[in-house]
Amino acid sequence: MKITILTLFPEMYEGFLSTSIIKKAILKGLVEVELVDIRAFSKSKTHRVDDYPFGGGQGLVMAVQPVKDCLNSVKLENSYVVMTSASGKTFTQQKAHSLSEKEHLIILCGHYEGFDERLVQLCDEEVSIGDYVLTGGELPSMVISDAIIRLKEGVIKEASHRDESYEQGLLEYPQYTRPEHLDEGDVPAVLMNGDHEKIRKYRLKESLRKTWLKRPDLFKDKVLSKEETQLLCEVLLESIKKD
After folding, report:
1. Are 143 and 96 in contact (CB under 8 A)?
2. Which residue has better confidence, 26 or 158?
3. In the prediction, which pLDDT does 111 show?
4. Peptide bond before 179: cis, by omega within 30 degrees of 0?
5. Is 161's pLDDT higher than 70?
6. pLDDT tens-digit profile of 63-113?
7. How much is the pTM?
8. Cβ contacts of 208 within 8 Å, gap of 6 or more
9. Which of 14, 66, 170, 178 can pair with 41 through a Cys bridge, CB separation 3.0 to 4.6 Å?
């Protein structure tokens, strides 16, 4: 898979691309990440890429010409173009899976007050990483890239992300490591007995409990199995008794 990021600030990606799992994935040839400077395509003598908005208002808007020329320089027949935008649909784990299947993903990073609206039609979709405002699209592009790259085969073990938060529509169950006993509490005994079926059931129940307590909105789109329904009922009964 190839990810091409169109940005005004390619230097922001130095740390992102040269550390941890992302670096290893690139070195293994599992993914290629290309950075393209939009400013290099400006026809202005001062390499300007923005201008004042028609109708007045604060800030500057990224102009069509440099962005369009930059996009056309890298776009292929199989390219899929994503624009980082506050107007886009919220990025989710399901969207990460969908984008990870693209052969060539182009991420267009906005800046200033955003893009000239006519650039939207050159993209396949707009994506937002949340309901807040950032200085530019560089950080969102890193978030999107990170979520996608770690899903590619060979980057991390399949079992490592199978039970992660949002993969099954639930938050991940609580995790513990050594030492077994601390002032802050003990490791649950069920995790120490070696009974894999009891551990699986315990983790599923705690995943349901954690989701109910912290992100109950996730149950809106979650179709519960018979076992999950039973365990969630147990969680709710325990909660009532506790109160």
Report:
1. no
2. 26
3. 86
4. yes
5. no
6. 999 999 999 999 999 999 999 999 999 999 999 999 999 999 999 998 888
7. 0.89
8. 170, 228, 231, 232, 235
9. 66
- CA dist 61 and 27 (Å) reads 37
Collect all residues with Cβ–Cβ distance below 8 Å to 85 and sequence separation of at least 6: 110, 114, 115, 120, 126, 127, 128, 137
Beta bridge partners of 66: none
Q: Shortest CA distance to 113 belongs to which of 135, 84, 141?
A: 135
Res 78: pLDDT: 97
Lookup result for tokens 């060979």: 154
Q: Which domains does the chain have, with CATH numbers?
A: 2-158 (3.40.1280.10), 163-242 (1.10.1270.20)
Question: Model confidence at 181, in pLDDT bands (50, 70, 90)?
Answer: very high
Among 129, 196, 173, 146, which residue's Cα sits nearest to residue 25? Answer: 146
One DSSP character per residue, the chain reads -EEEEEES-GGGGHHHHTSHHHHHHHHTTS-EEEEEEGGGG--STT---EEPPTT--SS-EE-HHHHHHHHHHH--TTEEEEEEEEEEEEP-HHHHHHHHT-SEEEEE--BTT-B-GGGGGGSSEEEESSSS--SBSHHHHHHHHHHHHTTSBTTB-HHHHHTSTTTTSSPPPP---S-SEETTEE--GGGGS--HHHHHHHHHHHHHHHHHHH-GGGGGS----HHHHHHHHHHHHHHHHH-
